[in-house]
Design a protein that fits this description.
This protein is mainly beta. 6% of the residues lie in helices and 39% in strands. The protein starts with a helix and ends in a 10-residue tail after the last strand.
């Protein structure tokens, strides 16, 4: 797809899969190694992000993942062939604890929970865009997500049906359907909240891509 044109004007983008992107205003690509599903594996020294992989737990039908005691969005937890992976994004530099709690029927299997400590690095935010402590886009200067940021998760399956409530016309929130319509509505400049669009996997052209 015409990626440069499609991403033009976005405030923040995070891509999760075989490659990952975290963005303040700097967009940084890094490799995402795949580990064999045996023990818990974590990736440290990433730019304001970390991930953990683990083998399936007997009797579990789901997993809750926490970073420093705060649960991450379920869309950041994914199943692959023989293992699971969870990505934590918007982490400030330093050490963090990632905890995986298996669930069964909606109940956490706390006795089978496991955790690891990860260390992440800060992006280099020197330059005019961050002068005087300014932080553009959906992320604070320390890499954490702004408290009023709108977060949208886009997969190839939901790219034309994903919804988001935006103040598109300056007359109150309306439902915007499809990632292209969300981007178009946001570019009108009436919505004052920052937006982070997180792409999961390979996204083909939306139906109404301009």
């Amino acid at each position: 797809m015409k990626l440069k044109k499609f991403l033009a004007g976005l405030a923040a983008v995070t891509m999760l899969a075989s490659c990952a992107v975290t963005s303040g205003n700097n967009i940084v690509f890094y490799d995402a190694p795949v580990y064999a599903a045996s023990a818990l594996k974590t990736s440290s020294n990433l730019k304001e992000a970390a991930y953990v992989t683990w083998a399936p737990v007997s009797g579990a039908d789901g997993y809750n993942v926490y970073v420093d005691g705060v649960q991450i969005d379920s869309m950041l937890v994914r199943q692959y062939s023989g293992y699971f992976r969870a990505d934590a994004v918007g982490l400030k530099a330093g050490s963090h604890t990632m905890k995986v709690v298996p669930t069964s029927g909606g109940t956490e299997m706390t006795a089978q929970a496991f955790s690891e400590t990860v260390t992440v690095e800060a992006h280099d935010r020197s330059g005019y865009a961050f002068a005087n402590g300014k932080a553009l886009g959906a992320y604070n200067a320390d890499g954490t997500l702004k408290s009023d940021a709108v977060v949208v998760y886009v997969t190839n399956e939901n790219k034309d049906t994903v919804t988001c409530m935006l103040n598109a016309e300056g007359k109150g929130e309306v439902e915007c359907v499809g990632v292209q319509n969300i981007i178009t509505a946001y570019k009108k400049g009436k919505e004052t909240r920052p937006i982070a669009i997180r792409f999961i996997g390979n996204i083909e052209d939306p139906a109404n891509m301009s």
